[in-house]
């Protein structure tokens, strides 16, 4: 029985600016975090959620998901809107008369991490100089335009999502006067619930809406992907991927994967050639754990098949 | 009395927003007492805002690895409350948010024997996926141990303690809610040790978790 699905992946990008930071005047920087004295780029969790949502929206009929209104509020119709179901919402209720205003909250069953760069930024970056011509000067013979500097970098990003399979397409009900009776009401049928779960995983293979793609055309899909179908909630899989230079930390990888398997989880590993220096070691380690290394898209197909065929909680 | 000790790690980022923050969302360096108790309540499958639970367990905390917060600019969508508001002008407002990168802590929980046994099972098999701080900040709970704890006098503390001690960061943390959640009560001034222990100037009554002396709030 599957209760939760974890995906953790790394993606190698070419020169790009996936999520801009604050910048200043004509300087567009990359968002960066500092870790042990070094700066690394990252793509915020909010941006990653947006990319995933757009990928899900593109995969199916656009009418299956709402478009937030002019206040930024989504419809909150879990039954008919897959994005409100998958990513939750907070809709405010105005106070009427003497009653207090409050909010209708659905906690997102899909948790999306930021994409964190694993290589120091300053060793892998550049500033691109360009000019922007304004529309009203396009027909003049005058040279020039506004000067813009865009910070760009190559990196290897790590990212993860965790899917609460139990709560997709369902609403949690706690009876009046009770403190923790967990009753889950089905709002859609099991087939549609499974379909929405598979949509999230497929979206990982189709992420495309990040910034600066008019010219930079970056591929941000997984080069190395691990997935787990678990019958217990934990996010241990998210720390299986750590790098030593351009090699995967094999010892840590084996320890984490073994722990997830020992807890009853099923783990899948997908890898494209040319990312890690120790590919053979990874394949051997997986073989030792009873896992066949496949391509990332095959892994998504395989775990989707498991979701389709197995009983989900 | 029974107690639990576990290591709480966040594999990506975490932020523990100070309640009074507006356009600059500062973060506490450690999760507030209310946040830890909320995590425990979530693991047990309790309803949102179960304020009774805040009095049923007591919590201690020790930072294991915490770096200085990183600042990022983000946009917050604000609703236009009246028709005369200019929606385009106030569509979103920029604010600064602090976050911590991969922090980890040791958490100590004390309570009645039955509740601690229940919590031990609940943290191993949570009723809901656990997160801390912001709603997407995943957590990993490891090295979970239950043990008998006792109150003893000690000259050394291995956790955050009430009072002012050298070499520590001083802070008041949210402790509990009163008045049906409308009033937030803070702790007294606390000393947060980053090197694992505090030498106290006089004996203090603490809880003994194995070899560690911890103050519970």
UniProtKB/TrEMBL annotation, chain B:
Assigned keywords, A-Z: Antiviral defense
Short name of any one Pfam family annotated for the protein: Cas_Cas5d
Q: Which Gene3D superfamilies match?
A: 3.30.70.2660
Q: Name one GO biological process term.
A: maintenance of CRISPR repeat elements
Can you name this protein? CRISPR-associated protein Cas5
Recorded source organism is Calorimonas adulescens
Taxonomically, what lineage is the organism?
A: Bacteria, Bacillati, Bacillota, Clostridia, Thermoanaerobacterales
């Amino acid at each position: 029985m599957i209760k939760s699905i974890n995906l953790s992946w790394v993606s190698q990008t070419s020169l790009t600016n996936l999520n801009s930071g604050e910048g200043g005047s004509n300087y567009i920087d990359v968002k960066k975090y500092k870790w042990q004295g070094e700066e690394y780029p990252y793509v915020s969790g909010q941006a990653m959620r947006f990319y995933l949502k757009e990928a899900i929206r593109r995969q199916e009929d656009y009418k299956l998901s709402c478009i937030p209104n002019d206040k930024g509020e989504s419809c909150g119709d879990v039954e008919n809107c897959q994005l409100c179901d998958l990513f939750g919402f907070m809709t405010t209720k105005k106070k009427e008369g003497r009653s207090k205003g409050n909010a209708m909250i659905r906690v997102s069953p899909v948790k999306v991490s930021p994409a964190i760069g694993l290589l120091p930024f300053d060793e892998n970056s550049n500033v691109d100089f360009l000019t922007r011509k304004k529309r009203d000067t396009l027909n003049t013979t005058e040279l020039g335009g506004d000067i813009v500097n865009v910070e760009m970098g190559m990196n290897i990003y790590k990212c993860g999502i965790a899917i609460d399979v139990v709560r997709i397409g369902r609403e949690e009900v706690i009876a009046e006067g009770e403190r923790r009776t967990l009753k889950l009401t089905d709002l859609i049928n099991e087939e549609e619930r499974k379909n929405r779960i598979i949509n999230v995983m497929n979206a990982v293979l189709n992420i495309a809406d990040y910034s600066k793609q008019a010219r930079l055309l970056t591929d941000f899909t997984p080069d190395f992907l691990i997935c787990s179908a678990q019958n217990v909630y934990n996010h241990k899989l998210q720390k299986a991927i750590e790098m030593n230079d351009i090699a995967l930390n094999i010892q840590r990888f084996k320890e984490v994967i073994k722990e997830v398997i020992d807890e009853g989880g099923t783990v899948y590993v997908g890898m494209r050639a040319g990312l890690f220096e120790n590919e053979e070691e990874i394949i051997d380690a997986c073989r030792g754990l009873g896992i066949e290394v496949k391509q990332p898209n095959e892994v998504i197909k395989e775990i989707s098949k498991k979701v389709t065929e197995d009983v989900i909680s | 009395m029974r107690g639990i000790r576990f290591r709480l790690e966040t594999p990506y980022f975490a932020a523990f927003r100070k309640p009074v923050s507006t356009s600059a969302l500062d973060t506490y360096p450690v999760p507030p007492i209310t946040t830890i108790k909320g995590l425990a309540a979530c693991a047990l499958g309790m309803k949102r805002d179960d304020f009774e639970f805040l009095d049923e367990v007591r919590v201690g905390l020790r930072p294991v690895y915490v770096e200085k917060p990183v600042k990022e600019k983000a946009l917050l969508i604000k609703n236009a409350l009246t028709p005369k508001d200019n929606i385009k002008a106030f569509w979103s407002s920029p604010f600064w948010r602090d976050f911590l990168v991969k922090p980890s802590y040791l958490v100590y929980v004390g309570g009645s024997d039955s509740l601690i046994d229940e919590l031990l099972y609940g943290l191993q098999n949570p009723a809901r996926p656990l997160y801390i701080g912001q709603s997407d900040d995943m957590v990993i709970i490891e090295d979970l141990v239950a043990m008998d704890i006792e109150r003893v006098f000690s000259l050394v503390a291995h956790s955050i303690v009430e009072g002012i001690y050298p070499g520590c960061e001083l802070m008041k943390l949210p402790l509990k809610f009163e008045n049906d959640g409308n009033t937030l009560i803070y702790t007294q001034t606390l000393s947060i040790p980053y090197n694992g222990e505090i030498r106290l100037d006089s004996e203090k009554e603490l809880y003994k978790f194995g070899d560690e002396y911890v103050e519970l709030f």
